[in-house]
Fold this protein.
Amino acid sequence: MLYPQRVGALHLAAAGRYCLPDETMAYPYGLAADDDGKTMLWARRMRARLRAFLNRPVHLYIGTEDTARDETLRQAPALDALQGSTRHARAHHDAAALWAAAQAAGLPDRVSLTELPGCTHDVAWTIDTAGLARMVAAPGRAARRLAAAV
C-alpha cells in the first residue's frame, strides 16, 4: 500500500497476514497508528496512498488446502480473531476487506481471489504442478473471481 505508483498489478500468494485497508486498526494489521505512536508515519503515508492502491489490480491466490496452523503461520489471538486462523481464511477476509474499501471509495472492483484446488502451503508444488506462475503471468485467463461475502 505504501508505493502504489510503483506497481502495475499486485499478486499475493498464500500470505500469512495482511495489512487491511481499515483506519480503525493499528498498523501492521490496519492503517491507524499504534497506541504509542511509533507507527504514525507509516500509517499516515499508507492512508494517503490508499485510494491509488485500491485503484490497482490486486490478485490473491490461495490453496484450498492451505489450512495448517504450523510454525510458519503467524499466530496471535488478536490476529486469528480479526483475520482468521488459517491462510485460506485470511485470504478470503482480505479480499472482502479490499472489495469493501474499493466500494466505499467509489472505485471499481479490481480484486480477484483465485482458489488453487488441492494446494497446501508448498510453494514449489503450487508453482510447478498447480500452475501458479502461469496464473501470475496471465491473471486475466486464469483467475476465477469469487463472490465477496461482504
